Every structure is written in C-alpha cells, then in structure tokens.
Amino acid sequence: MPITFDPTSRLFKLDTDCSTYAFMVYEENYLVHLYYGPKIPDTSLSHLMYRGWNDSFGPHNPQVQDPRFSLAFMPQEYSCANSGDYRASAFEVRGPAGDTVTDLRYVSHRIIPGKPALAGLPATFAQEDEAETLEVEAQDSVTGLKVFLLYTVFARHGAMARSLRAENAGTAPVDLERVYSLCLDLPTMDYDLLHLYGRWNKENTTVRQALQHGSQGFQSRQGMTSHNNNPFAALLRQDASEEQGEALGVSLVYSGNFSFEIEVDTFGCSRLLAGISPASFRWHLEPGESFQSPEAVMVFSQQGLGGMSRAFHRLYREHLIRGQWANKKRPLLINSWEAAYFDFDGPKLVEFAKEAKELGIEMLVMDDGWFGNRCDDFRALGDWQVNEEKLKGSLQDLIQQVNDQGLLFGIWYEPEMVSPDSNLYRAHPDWAITAPGRTGSLGRNQLVLDMTRPEVRDNIFQQMAEVISQNNIAYIKWDCNRNISEAGNAILPPQRQGEFFHRYVLGVYDLMDRITTAFPHILLENCSGGGGRFDPGMLYYSPQIWTSDNTDPIERLTIQFGASLCYPVSSMGAHVSANPRTGLATKAAVAMMGTFGYELDPRKLTPEEKEAVKAQVADYHKYYDLIHNGDLYRITDPTLDPFFCDWEFVSPDQTEVLFTRVMMRRPINFFQVQRLRGLDPDKLYTDQETGETWSGAFLMSAGVDLSLCSWAPVEDGHCVVKHFVAQ
Ligand code: GLA
User: Which entry of 112, 187, 306, 382 is 20 to 30 Å from 212 by CA?
Assistant: First the structure.
C-alpha cells in the first residue's frame, strides 16, 4: 500500500519505491507537512514540524495546547493566506466580508485505487492497479469553502501528482485570489534551483543557482506557456550532479500563465509553490460552484538529474501521452516549411512526395499557406478553406497524388488565431481578444481568437472538421504564433474578468479534446513558434511537440538537452534541415534525439546526399525502439563542455546502447575517452562497427576511446555514433 494513514498519530505516509512523503493532522485539525525525501520506514515523525522557535511575534491559536505551535514558521501542507503564516501562501480566498483570511482545517479523507480524471484539464492517468490516490477534505469554517487536496502516488516511478478542487459549500460568493497546485515546505535551503529559460529560437536554456534567503522564481504572463520559461523546476541538493545525489523535479501540467515561487524563510527553510500565476488570476465562485486546479507532478530521485529525467520520461510516456499514437510507431515525415515557406503549389508538393518516397520518407506535411488567401503571414488566419487556386486543384486530388506515392499526408493549422485581413475577422471582429474599449496589439500581424467563447470554438471546430472529414489527413501540426495581450472580453462580467486567462486555456483544451476525440486516428503535433508551448498539458493531447524553430544542429543541442530534463525524446519534434552549419550526418545524429524527420527541399539533394538520407532512414527504423522506449543518459552537457556534447540511449533490458558524440568545436591535440553509463557491468557489449567486445564494467569505468574518431578526417566534421549490442 503506497498510501497509509495511522488513525492514532493521524499521520499520512505516501511511499514510492524510492521516496517518502509525510504529513499529519495536528491539534485543531491543522494539516502539517513533515517530510519529503528518500524512503524511510519510520512512523514517528511529528517532531519534524518544529522548524523554528516561536517568539512573541509568531501568531499562536489559543485553542492549540502546544505553545510552540505557530503557522508563522511551521511547515504547512497547503499554506493559506492571512492566518498567521507570513510566507508566500498557496491559497488565498476573498470571502463575502471582503477580507482574505483563509484557514483550511482537515475534515476527512479517503484513499482510492487508480486516479480520478480532472474535469476539463489534462492530467496524468492510471489504471486501478497502477496508482493510488489520497483525497483530503479541508474546510474554512467561516466562508464554508471546501478544498479537496488530491495526491496520486505512482510508486514505481518515484512520482506523485498533486492538485486540488475548491468547492463553495458556503451560502455567499467567494473569490479565489490564488490557487497554487502544490505547496512544499522543505526544512533546508541546501538546494540549487534549476529551471529552463529561453526565447524564440533559443528555448530551454538551463540555469542553476543556489537558493537565497527571500523570494525567487519564474513565471509566464503571456497567456501561454511561452518560450521564456518552461513550467518545470528541479531542486537539487548542492552536491547533486547529473547521475548522483538528490533531485526533486516539479512539472506543471498546464499551458497558460504559471508561476513557480520559492521562498527561503528566516530559519533557512524553503517553500516551493507551483501553479497558476496569481498575478493575473481571480476566480469567482458562487455557492455550489467549484474550481479544479491544474496538476503538478513531483518526481524524487537519488540518481541526480539523470535519474529524475528518466523517471519523468517513463511517467509521461506511460501515464500522460494518450491515444492511438502514444505507443504506435510514428511515420517519418518531411515538412514543407523550411523547404518552401509560402512558395508552393500542389504540383511542387507532389514532386516533394515523389523524391521523399525514393528516400524512404513516410509522410508529407503541408505547412502554412494552403488556406484562404494566405500568401504571406499578413492574412487569412481564421479562413480555413482550401485555396484550390494555389494548390492548382482540390485538396482531395493533392492528397490522392501524395498517397499514390505511398506517403501519408499531414496539414498545418493555427486554430487560435485570426488575421485582421480575413473573412472571419471581417464577420466577427469581436471574436478577437481585446479588453472593452482597447485596441488589440498585433503579434506576427495577427490577433488571438477568444477561445473562452463557445461560439468561437464551435466555428473553428466546424471549419477544421469539414476539411479533416473530407480528406485523408493523417497528421495535424497545431501552431500558435503569438502571445495574448490586452486580455479581457465583453462577455464576462467585471467580477469575472480575472478568470479570462484560465478560461482561455480551458477553451484551447476543449477544442483540442474535440478534435482528438472526433478524429482519433490523427497524429497531432503541437507547435508555438517552435517550443513556445512545450508543456505537459499539450503532451496530453499531442504525443509530440516541435521543439524549436531553430534547426541549427549545434544550437539544437542545448535546446534538446534542456527539454530532455523533463520531456521524453519521443515527444521532441526534431528535423534535419538545410541549415549549413554542419553536414547531414551531424544533423541526423541530433534529430535522432527526437522524433526525427526532414524539413528541406528533397529535390535539391545531391545523389550522395540522397544515399546518406536513405541510410539515415534505415537508422531511424533500426534505432526507433531504443530511442523511443530506452533510457536517456546525458553524458556531456553542451552548456558546460567547450568541445563535446555526448549522450546515450540504453534499452530497458540493457542489451543495446547507442552512444552519440557531437563535436561543437574541434579541439587540437587531445586524447579522449568517455565512460558510458547505465550498462550491465556483467554483460559483454560488442561495438557493431569494429567488432571489439568489452564488458559493461569496462565501458563504464575505463570508457570508450574516442580520440581516433576526432582525428579522422570526418568530412562532416562533427559527430561520432557508436552502437553496442550485448551478447
Ligand atoms: C511557426 C512554426 C513553423 C512554421 C511557421 C508557419 O513559426 O514554428 O514551424 O510552421 O509557424 O508560419
């Protein structure tokens, strides 16, 4: 039983294979957090609640007998505002009297097998025998507001999913001012905070810094996840490294404004909060109404960052990514964007398909430019009718010709957007987001449709459904090329305008749900100017996401390494493009650390390049299982090493290993061995190229000699790939 409750000590213990999480119901039904860390058998933990000494400045509830009790410094299970805890709080409610005193006390709990779904929101899922869920009911006695704290334990993965539902069980309306999905009070500040910042074309840059007294954190205010910060953080013990030490990862299953806030208090204790950003949030709850928070996923590992990442990868592959394509082999695609931009017609795409077929490619994706009068990015978003003049025929004919070549067909959409120069906008100017009386700013010459409105979603769904149902479409790339500004709308009453951003996200989820439910055969790939909305919420609807518009293979290394901290490589859209930075071999080696595909004009390849591409396609099939279902080991960090970026995939049974080295700069006069990781020391591994055999122990301790590889006159100049198979 991963979840236990001792009725005498009123202690909750939530155990995974490698971690323990504990909290208790204390005097006056306060929920007090006690422990999160390596797995422990002990059940006498209540003394862990004392993390400071109460002086006269720490408010004390006179009904509590324990004189040392004060919310000012005690660890809270779910901290509330304005009740004597002065640290950043997870939950704040403005009651009918106008004050924000929020005071949740334990009422009851239940432990259930499996995991309930979260209404309207993406979330991890589990069968009854795969996970166990604890639901703790707490209530504020004055407002009557009830909160149900949910904890699902994925024991095998060292993971827990947390969220909450607030229900107004009182008689008057209340306003939720902040609703974090997760609050975690840790007894020390001996942590580094690691997170991913970035910008368009440079997503997922890793930054690691020691926690400081005071507040630190990162967030999105863009209405979408954004390129600027990813909803993921790791707290690492300061001695933790890639493969050693304690790493605690938190990932938010959400695609809108979010916030990760860490406050180190005066006693050197740390509070981590993760959830919807309170900055632009206020949710009005009439009596009887409820609010479901997004889910935050926590992973604990004692095998450093690498162990944490592999746990996230397995969890998200098995318990987040859904649908027919979750485990089905994905078709190897070629995308028209970098090959042609807006400059294509039907015959040109058919030529692409013919060439691609020769190379072994399995699907052609027609990117932006096929609808309305979309000849550039100044117009036509929202007019999702096929431009037959441009295609020189119907879409059905085009798809038929592509299918005749033996290729599947995919198509691009940007469903949430509208161009001012579009029929949709001319008919419904009020469907674009702008607060009443304001003029909406443009981003990439476009406005954002108000996805909070059902009639807007219905219109876009119908337009999309018409094209999809009449054509043999196997894949959709769902793009989103700007953020929200001038947020607000004329439909919500003033006291509900604070709900706008979250309602937008719920609207997007609803539309994605309708499309994926109506057309379950479609492989959906999300995109937002590259990785502007690369988050677990999107992964729930689409098993893959375009990682970045930057297809320079050297730049891609840091972007993909960063993304891999939380997301499985099977979800990371990665293509070989015409980018001139390196030769084809390196581009392919880097794209293999992802979904793999092409984004270039296949007619422009030389005969030698075509042979190279055919070999890469063969490799794609050969290594598909190893890459998509294997364990990733990041060996050399491209943000730290001046010369090399090394990584490795190991099959779950440790019989196969694929090692890749990309040389970012060529060192002169050096000798280099690299130790492999994650092998079985007792197995004998044969280098498939040289036939040499080494023990796993040798390869992990003495390493592979790579100095010759770098001296060889590699025409491509940049990469080494080694494949080992155990006998
Ligand atoms: C975004 C995407 C690109 C491409 C263009 C089309 O920038 O990231 O891959 O689809 O839009 O306009």
Answer: 306
Q: What is the pLDDT of residues 295-330, one digit of tens each?
A: 999 999 999 999 999 999 999 999 999 999 999 999
How far is it, in rounded angstroms, from Cα 349 to Cα 223? 35
- Catalytic site residue 103? no
Distance CA 719, CA 663 (A): 6
Answer for the pair 117, 123: CB distance below 8 angstroms, yes or no. Answer: yes
User: With a 6 A CB cut-off, is 370 part of the ligand 1 pocket?
Assistant: no
**Which of these is catalytic: 15, 479, 535, 601?**
479
Q: Which of 360, 366, 364, 363 is nearest to 337 (CA)?
A: 366
Q: Is residue 678 in contact with ligand 1, taking CB distance under 6 Å?
A: no
The 10s digit of each residue's pLDDT in 28-73 is 999 999 999 999 999 999 999 998 877 888 999 999 999 999 999 9
pLDDT recorded at residue 712 = 46
Beta strands 191-199 and 105-113: pairing type?
unpaired
Calculate mean pLDDT across residues 421-444: 96
Q: What are the two backbone dihedrals, phi and then psi, of residue 665, each rounded to the nearest 5 degrees?
A: -140, 145
357 sits in which H/E element: helix 346-359
At residue 664 the predicted structure's pLDDT band, cuts being 50, 70 and 90, is: confident
Say if ligand 1 is within 6 A of residue 525 CB.
no
CA 491, CA 481: separation in Å to the nearest integer? Answer: 25
Identify whether 549 is a catalytic site residue.
Answer: yes
- What tokens does 376 get? 């550039």
Does residue 619 have a pLDDT over 80? Answer: yes
Most distant CA atoms of the chain, gap in Å: 84
Centre a 10 Å sphere on the Cβ of residue 727 and count the other Cβ atoms it contains: 8
> What are the phi and psi torsion angles at 549 (to 5°)?
-75, -15
- The pLDDT score that the predictor gives to residue 671 is 73
Separation of CA 538 and ligand 1 centre (Å): 17
What's the confidence (pLDDT) of residue 688?
96
Contact at 8 Å (CB) between 228 and 534? no
Pocket test of ligand 1: the residue of 544, 549, 550, 600 to mutate, having most ligand atoms within 8 Å of its CB, is 549
From the CB of 530, is ligand 1 less than 6 Å away? yes
- Residue 708: what pLDDT? 60
* pLDDT at 718 (0 to 100): 77
Q: Which one-letter DSSP state was computed for residue 24?
A: E
In the 3-class helix/strand/coil scheme, how is 389-422 assigned residue by residue? Answer: HHHCCCHHHHHHHHHHCCCEEEEEECCCEECCCC
CA 187 to chain centre: 28
Task: Mean pLDDT check: name the lowest of 13-27, 196-210, 279-293, 712-726.
Answer: 712-726
